[in-house]
Design goal:
cell inner membrane, 0% strand, mainly alpha, ABC2_TM
Length: 251
Amino acid sequence: MREYLNALWELTKRELRRKYARSYLGILWSSLYPFLRMLLVVFLFSTIFDKGIDRYPAYYFTGYLMFEFFNVGSVTSVTTLRDNKDLLIKSKLSKKTFVMSRVNTAFINLLLGSIPYIGVLIYYKAILTPACLLIIPDLFFLYLFVTGMSYILSILYVYFKDIRNIHVQLLNLWRFFIALFYHVDWVSPGVRKFIELNPIYSFIKISRDCLIYGRVSEGRFFVQAILYSVGVYLLGSIIFEAKKNSVLLRL
């Protein structure tokens, strides 16, 4: 287990070096970009949405960080097996570690983006209660969900090269159905039900409630988050284990 964790950490560091090329400017940009994105959205939409959503900048920022972790983690993981084919053939490491290293890199980006996010929470006087601790299991289950999706996508890409472009386009559509910059109460009951059944919305809803408003979300959102994350992770693991050897022949 220790060797596995060490190998995973080394692969994650390699991905970080590749992403930032030992550039402090790149790290700074990863930290500031979500904040700048929030400022842009608030500038453009605050006159429309600000009056109806309490602490709107923090509301948007929370949703953006959570969705962006899923976005970056799943997109960068799609090409993992093909990008590392030489190492996969030569190394005895578990093939899953290569996928997880990219998910870990995306998670570190989330942590970097959380630095200015904490400042936003303080500025807008987020309500600090013990409910804030719920962000820990929320992030854990989101991590499971992203990892499971990444397993599936990395296998599919070996067989279908267009899966990356399809996934990116689906993500562009997906972000409109997670109540990222609007409130779910503003849409029709049918659309609202569809949004609330969206896997990513459950994670976002829990994080907004516990971090901004100091409250606990309805139990159904916790049930959905657990079922989606565990279900997708198990499905991804099963598919990955079933195809991990045969995909090497197609790389």
